[in-house]
Amino acid sequence: MELDEKKYLYLLLIIPVLVVVFLYNLYWKRKKQREFGDLELLKKLAPEKSIFKPILKFVVRTLALACLIIGLVNPKIGTKLEKVKREGIDIVFAVDVSKSMLCEDVAPNRLDKSKQLVSQIINQLGSDRIGIIAYAGSAFPVLPITTDYGVAKMFLQSMNPDIVSSQGTSLDEAIKLSSNYFDDQKTSKLLIMISDGEDHSDGATAAAEEATKNGIKIITIGVGTEKGGPIPLKSNGVTQSFKRDNKNEVVITKMDEASLVKIAKATKGGYVNGNSTKEVLAYIKNALDNIQKTEFESTQMANYQSQFQWFLGMAFVLLFLDIFFLERKTNWIKKLNLFNEKE
Cβ neighbours of residue 218 under 8 Å, at least 6 residues apart? Predict the structure, then answer.
Protein backbone atom coordinates (compact mmCIF):
# COMPACT_ATOMS: atom_id res chain seq x y z
CA MET A 1 0.00 0.00 0.00
CA GLU A 2 1.16 3.51 -0.80
CA LEU A 3 -0.01 6.76 0.83
CA ASP A 4 -0.31 9.72 -1.53
CA GLU A 5 -0.59 12.60 0.98
CA LYS A 6 1.03 11.40 4.21
CA LYS A 7 0.98 14.88 5.74
CA TYR A 8 -2.77 14.59 6.40
CA LEU A 9 -2.17 11.64 8.77
CA TYR A 10 -1.40 14.20 11.47
CA LEU A 11 -5.09 15.14 11.43
CA LEU A 12 -5.82 11.76 13.08
CA LEU A 13 -4.38 13.27 16.28
CA ILE A 14 -7.64 15.25 16.52
CA ILE A 15 -9.57 12.05 17.31
CA PRO A 16 -7.99 11.26 20.73
CA VAL A 17 -8.46 14.92 21.66
CA LEU A 18 -12.18 14.69 20.78
CA VAL A 19 -12.50 11.49 22.82
CA VAL A 20 -11.01 13.19 25.88
CA VAL A 21 -13.31 16.21 25.44
CA PHE A 22 -16.35 13.96 25.01
CA LEU A 23 -15.58 11.90 28.13
CA TYR A 24 -14.99 15.05 30.14
CA ASN A 25 -18.30 16.45 28.92
CA LEU A 26 -20.12 13.27 30.07
CA TYR A 27 -18.44 13.53 33.44
CA TRP A 28 -19.36 17.25 33.75
CA LYS A 29 -23.01 16.60 32.85
CA ARG A 30 -23.23 13.76 35.36
CA LYS A 31 -21.73 15.97 38.04
CA LYS A 32 -24.16 18.82 37.35
CA GLN A 33 -27.10 16.41 37.39
CA ARG A 34 -26.09 15.21 40.85
CA GLU A 35 -25.90 18.84 42.01
CA PHE A 36 -29.34 19.55 40.55
CA GLY A 37 -31.14 16.66 42.20
CA ASP A 38 -31.59 12.92 42.60
CA LEU A 39 -30.54 10.97 39.48
CA GLU A 40 -33.39 8.46 39.79
CA LEU A 41 -35.87 11.32 39.94
CA LEU A 42 -34.31 12.91 36.83
CA LYS A 43 -34.71 9.59 34.97
CA LYS A 44 -38.42 9.54 35.81
CA LEU A 45 -38.81 13.14 34.63
CA ALA A 46 -37.18 12.25 31.29
CA PRO A 47 -37.94 8.54 30.75
CA GLU A 48 -37.15 8.60 27.01
CA LYS A 49 -33.73 10.16 27.49
CA SER A 50 -31.08 7.61 26.34
CA ILE A 51 -27.60 7.23 27.78
CA PHE A 52 -26.45 5.05 24.89
CA LYS A 53 -27.57 7.23 21.95
CA PRO A 54 -25.19 10.19 22.59
CA ILE A 55 -22.30 7.72 22.77
CA LEU A 56 -23.43 6.03 19.55
CA LYS A 57 -23.70 9.39 17.75
CA PHE A 58 -20.21 10.38 18.92
CA VAL A 59 -18.73 7.06 17.72
CA VAL A 60 -20.42 7.41 14.32
CA ARG A 61 -19.24 11.00 13.87
CA THR A 62 -15.69 10.09 14.94
CA LEU A 63 -15.57 7.19 12.47
CA ALA A 64 -16.84 9.53 9.75
CA LEU A 65 -14.08 12.02 10.58
CA ALA A 66 -11.45 9.26 10.48
CA CYS A 67 -12.72 8.11 7.07
CA LEU A 68 -12.57 11.68 5.74
CA ILE A 69 -8.97 12.05 6.91
CA ILE A 70 -7.93 8.71 5.38
CA GLY A 71 -9.67 9.81 2.19
CA LEU A 72 -7.49 12.94 2.16
CA VAL A 73 -4.38 10.75 2.60
CA ASN A 74 -5.51 8.83 -0.51
CA PRO A 75 -4.22 5.29 0.11
CA LYS A 76 -3.28 3.44 -3.06
CA ILE A 77 -3.26 -0.30 -3.52
CA GLY A 78 -1.47 -2.24 -6.23
CA THR A 79 -0.50 -5.83 -5.59
CA LYS A 80 -0.66 -7.26 -9.08
CA LEU A 81 2.71 -8.12 -10.60
CA GLU A 82 2.71 -8.09 -14.35
CA LYS A 83 5.33 -8.71 -17.02
CA VAL A 84 5.81 -5.78 -19.33
CA LYS A 85 7.68 -6.08 -22.60
CA ARG A 86 10.22 -3.31 -23.09
CA GLU A 87 12.52 -2.39 -25.92
CA GLY A 88 15.84 -0.83 -25.11
CA ILE A 89 19.44 -1.49 -24.15
CA ASP A 90 21.36 -2.26 -20.99
CA ILE A 91 23.40 0.67 -19.71
CA VAL A 92 25.89 0.63 -16.82
CA PHE A 93 27.15 3.93 -15.41
CA ALA A 94 30.64 3.70 -13.91
CA VAL A 95 31.29 6.78 -11.78
CA ASP A 96 34.76 7.70 -10.56
CA VAL A 97 34.59 8.49 -6.81
CA SER A 98 38.31 8.87 -6.14
CA LYS A 99 39.58 11.77 -4.02
CA SER A 100 40.65 13.67 -7.15
CA MET A 101 36.96 13.93 -8.10
CA LEU A 102 36.53 16.36 -5.19
CA CYS A 103 38.58 18.93 -7.10
CA GLU A 104 36.57 22.09 -7.74
CA ASP A 105 37.99 23.05 -11.14
CA VAL A 106 34.42 22.49 -12.39
CA ALA A 107 31.42 23.60 -10.33
CA PRO A 108 30.45 22.47 -7.78
CA ASN A 109 33.16 19.77 -8.03
CA ARG A 110 34.00 16.92 -10.38
CA LEU A 111 32.01 14.28 -8.47
CA ASP A 112 28.85 16.34 -8.11
CA LYS A 113 29.12 17.33 -11.77
CA SER A 114 29.34 13.62 -12.65
CA LYS A 115 26.21 12.88 -10.63
CA GLN A 116 24.37 15.69 -12.41
CA LEU A 117 25.38 14.30 -15.80
CA VAL A 118 24.23 10.77 -14.96
CA SER A 119 20.94 12.07 -13.56
CA GLN A 120 20.30 14.14 -16.70
CA ILE A 121 21.11 11.18 -18.94
CA ILE A 122 18.69 8.99 -16.97
CA ASN A 123 15.99 11.65 -17.45
CA GLN A 124 16.15 11.27 -21.21
CA LEU A 125 16.06 7.46 -21.24
CA GLY A 126 12.93 5.58 -22.23
CA SER A 127 12.68 1.88 -21.39
CA ASP A 128 16.37 1.07 -21.08
CA ARG A 129 17.70 -0.86 -18.11
CA ILE A 130 20.45 0.73 -16.05
CA GLY A 131 23.00 -0.20 -13.40
CA ILE A 132 25.54 1.84 -11.41
CA ILE A 133 29.00 1.09 -10.07
CA ALA A 134 31.48 3.29 -8.20
CA TYR A 135 35.23 2.96 -8.57
CA ALA A 136 38.49 4.42 -7.34
CA GLY A 137 41.44 2.11 -6.61
CA SER A 138 38.88 -0.71 -6.76
CA ALA A 139 35.34 -1.02 -8.08
CA PHE A 140 32.19 -1.33 -5.96
CA PRO A 141 28.67 -2.37 -7.13
CA VAL A 142 26.10 0.31 -6.22
CA LEU A 143 22.96 -0.76 -8.08
CA PRO A 144 22.32 -3.88 -10.22
CA ILE A 145 20.54 -3.69 -13.57
CA THR A 146 17.05 -2.24 -13.04
CA THR A 147 14.30 -0.26 -14.73
CA ASP A 148 13.54 1.75 -11.58
CA TYR A 149 15.06 5.13 -12.43
CA GLY A 150 13.87 6.68 -9.15
CA VAL A 151 15.85 4.18 -7.08
CA ALA A 152 18.83 4.66 -9.37
CA LYS A 153 18.87 8.41 -8.71
CA MET A 154 18.58 7.83 -4.97
CA PHE A 155 21.61 5.52 -4.93
CA LEU A 156 23.46 7.88 -7.25
CA GLN A 157 23.18 10.80 -4.81
CA SER A 158 24.57 8.69 -1.95
CA MET A 159 27.86 8.03 -3.76
CA ASN A 160 31.03 9.54 -2.26
CA PRO A 161 34.75 8.65 -1.95
CA ASP A 162 34.15 6.85 1.36
CA ILE A 163 32.18 3.98 -0.23
CA VAL A 164 35.38 2.62 -1.85
CA SER A 165 38.16 1.69 0.57
CA SER A 166 41.00 1.67 -1.95
CA GLN A 167 41.86 5.09 -3.33
CA GLY A 168 43.42 5.98 -6.68
CA THR A 169 41.73 5.51 -10.06
CA SER A 170 41.64 2.03 -11.57
CA LEU A 171 39.75 2.22 -14.87
CA ASP A 172 40.39 -1.46 -15.65
CA GLU A 173 38.71 -2.57 -12.40
CA ALA A 174 35.65 -0.51 -13.33
CA ILE A 175 35.47 -2.10 -16.79
CA LYS A 176 35.85 -5.64 -15.42
CA LEU A 177 33.12 -5.19 -12.79
CA SER A 178 30.81 -3.50 -15.29
CA SER A 179 31.17 -6.49 -17.61
CA ASN A 180 29.72 -8.73 -14.90
CA TYR A 181 26.58 -6.58 -14.73
CA PHE A 182 25.33 -7.64 -18.13
CA ASP A 183 23.42 -10.92 -18.30
CA ASP A 184 23.33 -13.46 -21.11
CA GLN A 185 20.42 -11.90 -22.94
CA LYS A 186 21.22 -10.68 -26.42
CA THR A 187 20.66 -7.06 -25.52
CA SER A 188 22.86 -4.22 -26.68
CA LYS A 189 25.33 -3.35 -23.93
CA LEU A 190 26.68 0.12 -23.20
CA LEU A 191 29.12 1.19 -20.50
CA ILE A 192 29.25 4.93 -19.76
CA MET A 193 32.33 5.84 -17.73
CA ILE A 194 32.58 9.23 -16.02
CA SER A 195 36.04 10.15 -14.73
CA ASP A 196 38.82 12.72 -14.71
CA GLY A 197 40.96 10.10 -16.46
CA GLU A 198 43.77 9.99 -13.90
CA ASP A 199 44.42 6.26 -14.14
CA HIS A 200 46.76 4.90 -11.49
CA SER A 201 46.77 1.36 -12.87
CA ASP A 202 47.73 -0.49 -16.03
CA GLY A 203 45.56 -2.61 -18.23
CA ALA A 204 42.57 -0.32 -18.92
CA THR A 205 42.98 -0.69 -22.68
CA ALA A 206 43.31 -4.48 -22.40
CA ALA A 207 40.17 -4.60 -20.22
CA ALA A 208 38.32 -2.49 -22.79
CA GLU A 209 39.37 -4.82 -25.61
CA GLU A 210 38.15 -7.79 -23.59
CA ALA A 211 34.82 -6.00 -23.02
CA THR A 212 34.49 -5.54 -26.78
CA LYS A 213 34.63 -9.32 -27.22
CA ASN A 214 31.58 -9.53 -24.94
CA GLY A 215 29.69 -7.05 -27.11
CA ILE A 216 30.13 -4.07 -24.78
CA LYS A 217 30.55 -0.57 -26.19
CA ILE A 218 32.15 2.08 -23.97
CA ILE A 219 31.48 5.82 -23.97
CA THR A 220 33.79 7.86 -21.75
CA ILE A 221 32.98 11.28 -20.29
CA GLY A 222 35.80 13.46 -19.01
CA VAL A 223 35.12 15.74 -16.07
CA GLY A 224 37.67 18.36 -15.05
CA THR A 225 40.10 20.75 -16.75
CA GLU A 226 43.59 20.39 -18.19
CA LYS A 227 44.76 23.15 -15.85
CA GLY A 228 43.39 21.18 -12.91
CA GLY A 229 43.31 22.24 -9.29
CA PRO A 230 43.99 21.17 -5.69
CA ILE A 231 41.97 18.59 -3.77
CA PRO A 232 40.21 20.30 -0.84
CA LEU A 233 40.04 18.62 2.56
CA LYS A 234 36.81 19.72 4.21
CA SER A 235 35.21 19.53 7.63
CA ASN A 236 31.47 20.22 7.90
CA GLY A 237 31.52 21.58 4.36
CA VAL A 238 34.31 24.08 5.06
CA THR A 239 37.72 23.73 3.37
CA GLN A 240 40.39 23.28 6.06
CA SER A 241 43.37 22.55 3.81
CA PHE A 242 44.41 20.83 0.59
CA LYS A 243 45.79 17.37 -0.05
CA ARG A 244 49.62 17.25 -0.05
CA ASP A 245 52.15 14.73 -1.31
CA ASN A 246 55.13 13.17 0.49
CA LYS A 247 57.12 16.37 -0.09
CA ASN A 248 54.38 18.39 1.62
CA GLU A 249 53.50 20.09 -1.64
CA VAL A 250 49.87 20.69 -2.63
CA VAL A 251 48.70 18.02 -5.08
CA ILE A 252 47.37 19.40 -8.35
CA THR A 253 45.05 17.01 -10.17
CA LYS A 254 44.49 17.44 -13.89
CA MET A 255 42.03 15.79 -16.24
CA ASP A 256 43.69 13.23 -18.54
CA GLU A 257 41.55 13.07 -21.69
CA ALA A 258 44.05 10.86 -23.52
CA SER A 259 43.41 7.77 -21.36
CA LEU A 260 39.64 8.16 -21.71
CA VAL A 261 39.84 8.58 -25.50
CA LYS A 262 42.06 5.49 -25.73
CA ILE A 263 39.53 3.35 -23.85
CA ALA A 264 36.64 4.58 -25.99
CA LYS A 265 38.50 3.83 -29.24
CA ALA A 266 39.34 0.31 -28.07
CA THR A 267 35.61 -0.54 -28.09
CA LYS A 268 34.68 1.63 -31.09
CA GLY A 269 32.78 3.82 -28.67
CA GLY A 270 33.28 7.53 -28.16
CA TYR A 271 34.52 10.28 -25.87
CA VAL A 272 32.85 13.56 -24.88
CA ASN A 273 34.01 16.34 -22.58
CA GLY A 274 31.66 16.47 -19.61
CA ASN A 275 32.06 20.13 -18.68
CA SER A 276 29.12 21.05 -20.92
CA THR A 277 25.96 19.22 -19.87
CA LYS A 278 24.19 20.20 -23.08
CA GLU A 279 26.91 18.69 -25.26
CA VAL A 280 26.98 15.48 -23.21
CA LEU A 281 23.21 14.99 -23.46
CA ALA A 282 23.23 15.63 -27.20
CA TYR A 283 26.13 13.21 -27.70
CA ILE A 284 24.56 10.44 -25.60
CA LYS A 285 21.18 10.87 -27.29
CA ASN A 286 22.76 10.54 -30.72
CA ALA A 287 24.72 7.48 -29.58
CA LEU A 288 21.62 5.80 -28.15
CA ASP A 289 19.67 6.48 -31.34
CA ASN A 290 22.32 4.57 -33.28
CA ILE A 291 22.39 1.52 -31.00
CA GLN A 292 20.07 -1.35 -31.85
CA LYS A 293 17.27 -1.78 -29.31
CA THR A 294 16.33 -5.24 -28.09
CA GLU A 295 12.97 -6.43 -26.80
CA PHE A 296 13.02 -7.94 -23.34
CA GLU A 297 10.56 -8.70 -20.56
CA SER A 298 10.60 -6.85 -17.29
CA THR A 299 8.52 -7.72 -14.23
CA GLN A 300 7.13 -4.68 -12.46
CA MET A 301 4.37 -3.68 -10.06
CA ALA A 302 1.13 -2.64 -11.68
CA ASN A 303 0.06 0.96 -11.24
CA TYR A 304 -1.31 1.79 -7.80
CA GLN A 305 -5.03 2.52 -7.78
CA SER A 306 -6.43 5.32 -5.60
CA GLN A 307 -8.83 4.15 -2.86
CA PHE A 308 -9.89 7.53 -1.41
CA GLN A 309 -13.41 7.26 -2.86
CA TRP A 310 -14.25 4.28 -0.61
CA PHE A 311 -13.35 6.17 2.55
CA LEU A 312 -15.15 9.34 1.48
CA GLY A 313 -18.22 7.24 0.60
CA MET A 314 -18.15 5.54 4.01
CA ALA A 315 -17.82 8.92 5.72
CA PHE A 316 -20.92 10.30 3.95
CA VAL A 317 -22.90 7.11 4.76
CA LEU A 318 -22.03 7.44 8.46
CA LEU A 319 -22.95 11.14 8.49
CA PHE A 320 -26.23 10.31 6.75
CA LEU A 321 -27.04 7.63 9.35
CA ASP A 322 -26.23 10.09 12.12
CA ILE A 323 -29.25 12.16 11.08
CA PHE A 324 -31.58 9.31 12.08
CA PHE A 325 -29.97 8.66 15.44
CA LEU A 326 -32.15 10.56 17.91
CA GLU A 327 -31.16 10.87 21.55
CA ARG A 328 -34.29 9.18 22.89
CA LYS A 329 -34.57 5.48 23.69
CA THR A 330 -35.63 2.90 21.12
CA ASN A 331 -37.41 -0.38 21.77
CA TRP A 332 -34.54 -2.68 20.80
CA ILE A 333 -32.13 -0.70 22.94
CA LYS A 334 -34.50 -1.02 25.89
CA LYS A 335 -34.56 -4.80 25.45
CA LEU A 336 -30.74 -4.95 25.48
CA ASN A 337 -30.73 -2.87 28.67
CA LEU A 338 -27.42 -1.24 27.85
CA PHE A 339 -25.98 0.86 30.68
CA ASN A 340 -28.74 -0.53 33.01
CA GLU A 341 -31.34 1.84 31.61
CA LYS A 342 -34.29 -0.27 32.78
CA GLU A 343 -35.84 0.72 35.98
Answer: 175, 190, 191, 192, 193, 208, 211, 263, 264, 266, 267, 269
pLDDT tens per residue, the chain (343 residues)?
666 677 888 888 988 999 999 888 888 877 776 766 665 655 555 555 666 677 888 888 899 899 888 888 888 776 666 666 767 888 999 999 988 889 998 989 999 999 999 999 999 988 888 999 998 878 888 998 888 899 999 999 988 888 876 666 678 888 888 888 886 667 888 999 999 887 656 678 888 888 888 888 999 999 999 898 998 888 777 878 888 878 888 888 889 888 889 888 888 889 999 988 999 999 999 998 888 787 766 655 556 677 778 888 888 888 888 777 665 555 555 555 554 545 4
pTM score over 0.90 = no
